[in-house]
Description:
By secondary structure, the protein is of the alpha+beta class. 53% of the residues lie in helices and 21% in strands.
Amino acid sequence: MNKPLIAFAALALAGSTLAVPAASAQSSHRRQVCENVQVRHNDSKDNHQIAGTAIGAVAGGVLGNQVGGGKGKTLATVAGAVGGGYAGNRIQKNNQDKNSYTTTERRCHYVDD
């Protein structure tokens, strides 16, 4: 056996145990905290209901344009476009809400005590 190698290993081992600091009075304990979270999924690509708003506004404007004459016709067209846009937005949102689903996901993070 190689005595200098054994002596070196013993010295290195002794040195490493001496280098370990004493435990402090305040030790922190790190632990993992997990919780179940409800996550809503919506497969829609149009989360702001832009398509429904645009289609509703055009339809409402066309219907409003059929009413009245002169400045009243212009007012009816604008009111129809605004009302139709709002209605189209709400209709698309309701349809998207019907097609969404909720899952439970487990989410974890670490905290120090």
